[in-house]
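User: I'm designing a mutation panel for Type-4 uracil-DNA glycosylase and want to avoid disrupting the core. Could you give me a predicted structure to guide residue selection? Please restate the sequence first so the numbering is unambiguous.

Assistant: Good idea. Sequence first, for numbering, then the predicted structure tokens:
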Amino acid sequence: MISANDLSPAQLAALLAFHGDAGVEWLLEEEPVDRFAEFEAMKAARGNARVAATSNRTEAPASQPTARQTAAAAAPTPSRAPAPVANAPAVAIPDAQAIEEARFAAESARSLAELRVAMEGFAGCNLRNSARNLVFAEGDPASGIMIVGPMPYADDDRDGQPFAGRLGEMLTRMMAGIGLTRESVLLSNVVPWRPPGNRVPTAREADICRPFIERQIALAEPKHLLLLGNFTARFFFGGNDTIHQLRGEWRELAIGGINVPTLATLHPQDLVTAPINKRFAWQDLLAFKARIHG
């Protein structure tokens, strides 16, 4: 097994990035270890060894403690207290308070730029503690077309932009099929911070992030909205229906005082894992294209 001491800084950084992408949040041992006490005990043991080597006596009296006994005596008894966790929030605020603070921060923003600043300073969602980046809306807010996914994935979190990596390439091809580009629409996610291990956001996390995505839609004022995936469709439409039950049907979504014609379809991840879904997504995209062109 390779020790961490044998790795270069670049290799250590790559290893930490790998653990982060795999969903590992903290690296802890089973029991807390007092490294300062270990170091002091080691110094004491080495000092006793030097004294013994220079001594003229051939053997120590039976009552004299050995270096190992001295080191053991110097080390304090291990405590059962939990090890401190780095970067953990000092105080957890109640859910209702976090939602209210998110709503206040979102409604105070008068532009997408102000909203991004507000979200960068928001500390009420636990997801930001494990994510690398805030993944904010990207593209053309004036296009009248907005595409919303569920959450950032590993590539999005690494690059700090929505729909990066392999899934982003799939979405780019999907849009190209109906004459759209990344630059000609506004791309965003319901949740702006990547959940550890790409897990589905909890109901609490979704509720806290709701004011932010609704404010993005209200500020952008899209004429047409495309929702990607099961989580996103349920988030906006409610209920427990699957994306196969919710897709392909136009609905009026009332957000921020505006009504937006909205269509749900499958997420690029659904097409990667089950290519047969491509035909359903293509049907939805053609319906979206027909609607945006009148």
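For picking mutation sites, this is relevant: The first strand starts at residue 138 and ends at 139. Strands lie at 138-139, 145-149, 186-189, 224-228, 251-255, 258-265.
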